[in-house]
Amino acid sequence: NLIYIEKAMDSQPHHELHVIFLPYPTPGHMNPMIDTARLFARHGVSVTIITTPANALPFQKAIDCDFTRGYHIRTQLVTFPAAEVGLPEGVENIKDSTSMELFYRIASGISKLKDQIKLLFQDLHPDCIVSDMCYPWTVESASELGIPRIFFYSSSYLSDCATHSILRHRPHEGLVSDTDKFTIPGFPHGIEMTRLQLPEWERITNEISGFFVPMFESESRSYGALYNSFDELESEYKQVHKSIVGIKSWSIGPVSAWVNKDDGPKVNRGQKEDLKEEPECLTWLNTKQDESVLYVSFGSLTRLSHAQLVELAHGLEHCGHNFIWVIRKKEGSENEDSFLQEFEEKMKESKKGFIIWNWAPQLLILNHPAIGGIVTHCGWNSILESLSAGLPMITWPMFAEQFYNERLLVDVLKVGVPVGVKENKFWASKDMAHVVGREEIAKAVVQLMEKEEGRETRRRARKLCDASKKTIEKGGDSYNNLMQLIDDLKSLKISKAHSRSRLDG
Ligand code: UDP
């Protein structure tokens, strides 16, 4: 490794800005950070991405390809302590957790990488660290090295501001019931939530708060924050962010659309094996009319309970529209398989639905003309990817900040039809989440796909799609913001070099 590092350092001109990217190994965090790292490299920055071997696999080809094209970008691997945390080789990403037990083991393995990473920070002599929010300790590392730390947040400005506002003002305390509404303090729109829709660690102070609170606190101790967002989506919340968090921020999204602009979407993104040239789901989509199919996905982490899978299957079967549904299984669900197998067979015969097991080529699906809308868990990347394809959404948040994102889609941007979820619950929690019934699901689908209101929703999504394309063009806001950030970092490097040479002289 050290020989490699020396070589890498030799090949790096002294005037060049060297930025380290430290992603957290879960697709919702990694995808936007890798895209951002590649954008930095395309604009003249020397980039090192630190990750583990299994986590590098899904994007290594893209990085090698960028490198061959002359960009200074490389991956630096650290060893995942699989044996130490009792995991088989290659299980290194949060998305591999099929149970709470596995989730804790993987998270523990990731936290044990700290010492290796800190050594690399020293060896690689970066000019800046772009750190995922989940590593609050990088504030101290950057400060020891005398370089800026940039907080990389992989969701919306609105959700970050909501978390800060709720932690500070605790507006949900003192309400009579968990389902009473309160308004988020300091927001330009009267955004209403209930206590049940907040992540548990925000609702009450618990063990998990000890993990999350330092992350959010570390944001205001950073040089600045990077957001995969754009002005037409939430410029008002960028202002709120400035007043609540008090640091500079740059919105440079949508990064996925930007980095794939010239190449077309990457087929193999997020999975280890390359897909065939044309995945079967696309061949199936080719037989469908434009805008006639719903894409149903709950992101990279969520696995639904059997009761919920059954309701969703019935809801989709009877909603009157075609669908593609990605199903991720949980541990111990083998006995429940026969229902889904029969359902899959039935859908194959009627040609009404297509089931994808485990992992979908989401970017390819969303950009297919037959797709007319998405049922989404409101993960920020899925939202941006849908809007970049001009698609309206049925919102079905599950956990974490997804309920805040739902409010942005439904109340502010008006590009989402809510299915009506009431409770924020991690899929692997001990007690089961409330089950959304088949009628509620079918009702939301009809509203989106058939009603006048749905047409308006679609029109607004298309408008945002146009804006998302303009903002990443030369001269667009996101484009300018990225250039501004790179210039800021270069000036900082130059002024530090000047003051050092004054001291030496
Ligand atoms: N994704 C995918 N195929 C899947 C599930 C997810 O490619 O079957 C990608 C998706 O395109 C997005 C990311 O994984 O880039 C998921 O991030 P998001 O913020 O939407 O949700 P999370 O998985 O973090 O809940």
From TrEMBL:
InterPro entries: UDP_glucos_trans. This is Glycosyltransferase. Signal peptide: none annotated. Belongs to the UDP-glycosyltransferase family. It comes from Sphenostylis stenocarpa. Keywords: Glycosyltransferase, Transferase. One of its GO terms (molecular function) is UDP-glucosyltransferase activity. Transmembrane segments: none annotated. The keyword Plastid does not apply.
